[in-house]
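Late entry, written up from scratch paper. The run itself happened at the end of the previous shift, but nothing got recorded in the book at the time, so transcribing now.
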Amino acid sequence: MQSPAVARLARLDGLRGLAACGVAFGYHGTNHLAPGGLPGEAWLAPLGWLRHWGWTLVDLFFVLSGYIFAHVYLTAGSLTRPGGMADFAVARIARLWPLHLVLLLAMALIGSANPANTPGAFVAHLLLVQAWYQPFAAAFNEPTWSISVELFCYAVFARMAAGGPRALGLAAAAAISWGLIYLALNGQPGGPWSGDDFARGLLGFFLGTALWHARAMLARAWWPVLALVLAAGLLIDMGGASALFPLTLLAWPAALLLALRLPFMDGRAMVWLGDRSYAIYLIHMPVILALLHLFDPAARGIGLLALAAGLTLGLSQLSFRLIEQPGRKAIRQWWALRQSARTAAHPA
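Output as recorded:
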């Protein structure tokens, strides 16, 4: 399990919370509930950017995960200890599965009209391997495709980290190289599309681990330079190539490094948002679909989007308190009791 001696990177949790809101409300919410755009888009560029490109904030999730996992597990060295891999797997299941299971069951009950919601898709979602198969990624709770990709990245990271720094370094180089080559050969302009899911995940996650390894050098970078890199990554037009190149290689690393330097990013509001980012990401689409079912298309606009945001944040608070925290605690306690029983049965 995570070592208590490893300091929490609360500022990056805050950034993850902002990214979750960008995907949930700026991209999915706006396109589904206010397809005509938001007031102020013409003069407030970030609103228009989120409506068109907010889906790419998922790639920021990947970069953040790689950096945070390197910070937590490489600092503590827990993956190289006896039983470290099993502890890691249980910790990931405890973190991801309780809320995912509840929402999967809910979508199975209310989403029967979706032809993609087949028994096979249900099993794939249940096992969190839905990103491996099509149209499973579009079934049930669609945004969870990225959770499936992250789980794969976690497994690769843990296995290679258990083999030592050299193994992890080679794996990171291979993952980053493969992601770049895949996007260069197959990446599409615009987006999103589902063909590059694993390339995006591996590229972003292991770029995040590389940033962590270079953190001492990067800490000396002048913040105005990082701001310029962020702006360049957001503004570069790739023409007929994938826009993920400047975003993943420039914008999101710069955003991560800037967030680490901004004191307000670990303020109470940002920490609150970061703690509930997973719930926001998983809950927002069921809320959007429910509102689309309940309200006439003529009602779509900023008011319906605001309602979706309020409901999502409120339900995220409830799920964090009533599902995520109790579920995580129960799974960890079960694992601790199982380990204690095994030790008692087979003492050293």
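The radius of gyration is 20 Å.
(Scratch paper discarded after transcription.)
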